[in-house]
Design a protein that fits this description.
The chain is globular, with a radius of gyration of 17 Å. The longest helix has 27 residues. The chain is 68% helix and 8% strand. It has a single domain, classed as Arc Repressor Mutant, subunit A, CATH 1.10.10. It is mainly α. It has a three-stranded antiparallel sheet. α1 packs across α5 and α3 packs across α4. GO terms for molecular function: DNA binding; DNA-binding transcription factor activity. Pfam families: MarR_2. It comes from Bacillus taeanensis. This is MarR family transcriptional regulator.
Length: 148
């Protein structure tokens, strides 16, 4: 019985994730962005300049899809690669264009998020956030086994 309940729990979480992504993609479509690109932009906006490896680790994304997202964002003029202290290391940072456009993207995402939360009590939102945060802190990132 517990196995079925676990499958149901994880299936529900997966379905929720897909639904949230779908709505975020729809909100960002008018700007030519997808939720995966928004994630990169949001992290760079909140954390500042990072290496591609740091972005991969923070977002739990493998290098190939991250490379494609960064290439698209460079082509759109939203991020640029800058030389790190080590000449082999490139850092990724937002461009001025991205900083100017960010409030529009953030508003689109905020409206989408508010739509999902309008009938979800604030106390439940806080409780859910605390549960997810504590659970995520206990889950290994999965990056440890990628060194081959």
């Amino acid at each position: 019985m517990i196995i079925v309940a676990n499958h149901t729990l994880f299936h529900s979480i997966h379905q929720l994730s897909r639904l949230l992504k779908k709505h975020a993609d729809n909100a960002l479509k008018p700007f030519g962005l997808y939720s995966a690109q928004w994630s990169v932009i949001y992290v760079l906006k909140t954390k500042g300049t990072l290496t591609q490896t740091e972005l991969c680790e923070y977002l739990s994304v493998e290098a190939p899809p991250m490379t494609r997202n960064i290439q698209r964002l460079v082509k759109q003029g939203y991020v640029k690669k800058v030389q790190g202290k080590d000449k082999r290391m490139k850092k990724i940072e937002l461009t001025e264009k991205a900083h100017q456009e960010f409030p529009k993207w953030e508003e689109a995402i905020t409206q989408t998020n508010e739509m999902f939360l309008e009938n979800f009590p604030e106390s439940s939102q806080k409780q859910l956030y605390e549960l997810i945060s504590s659970w995520m802190a206990e889950i290994p990132s999965g990056q440890e086994n990628n060194d081959e």
